[in-house]
Amino acid sequence: MKTVSSALLFFVSLFLFSCSSTTKTKQLKSKTKAEKVVSNEILVAEVEGMVCKMGCGGSIRKELIQTNAVSKVDLEYEDGAKKQTIKVHYDNKLITQSEIVRKLEKINKGQFKVFPIGTSEIQTSTSGSSSPSGINMAEKTFELPNLLGILSSFITE
After folding, report:
1. Per-residue pLDDT, 51
2. 44, 83 in Cβ contact below 8 A?
3. Distance from CA of residue 59 to its chain's centroid?
4. pTM above 0.85, yes or no
5. How does pLDDT run across 90-119, given as a tens digit for each residue?
6. What CA–CA distance (Å, rounded) separates 80 from 85?
7. Region at 76 (left for phi over 0; alpha for psi -120 to 50; beta for the rest)
8. What are the residues whose beta carbons fall under 8 Å from the beta carbon of 121, sequence distance 6 or more?
9. Which domains can be identified in the chain, with CATH numbers?
10. Pseudo-torsion of CA 76, 38, 134, 58, nearest 10°?
């Protein structure tokens, strides 16, 4: 009976923890690529069609960061406003303003309509650090203990 319950516990834990390492690897690769972007221009635009700051803003940030040409997206969200203002920090050698607008307007099957206001050049400082500001996102992770290793030690005994 002990062998059956141990085997059942082993398979359940194997099923629960089988995908965790793949997901973490993908997240780390994306973060590393985004940190390498050195922005030299900021696009200011109004976006119509946003219904919330977290979901819509997250979709916009995710889509633009995946281009590996955008280092940061600032969102000024006001509840009830028809248009929201965004600031996209990007490398104009890697992506153009029109490409950013096209990418935004393709999100969620055309949910957003983008109205560019203008661009401004980012001045790089010669004194101190010249590293990009990066992405301001709080990263929360939770990892369970390695139950597979613990269970395998019980089965071998």
Report:
1. 87
2. no
3. 9
4. no
5. 999 999 999 999 999 998 888 899 999 988
6. 13
7. beta
8. 40, 41
9. 37-124 (3.30.70.100)
10. 50
Task: Write the secondary structure of 70-137 as one string of H (helix), E (strand) and C (coil).
Answer: EEEEEEECCCCCCEEEEEEEECCCCCCHHHHHHHHHHHHHCCCEEEEEEEEECCCCCCCCCCCCCCCC
CA distance 68 to 94: 8
Contact call for residues 152 and 74 (beta carbons, < 8 A): no
CA atoms of 28 and 50, how far apart (whole Å):
28
Burial, 41: exposed, middle or buried (Cβ in 10 Å; 0-12, 13-18, 19+)?
Answer: middle
Torsion of CA 75, 78, 79, 84, to 10 degrees: -60
Q: In this structure, is the dihedral angle defined by the CA atoms of residues 5, 8, 14 and 17, taken in order, positive or negative?
A: negative
The model's pLDDT over 111-152, given as tens digits with 9 standing for 90+, comes to 899 999 988 888 766 544 444 444 444 455 666 666 666 766
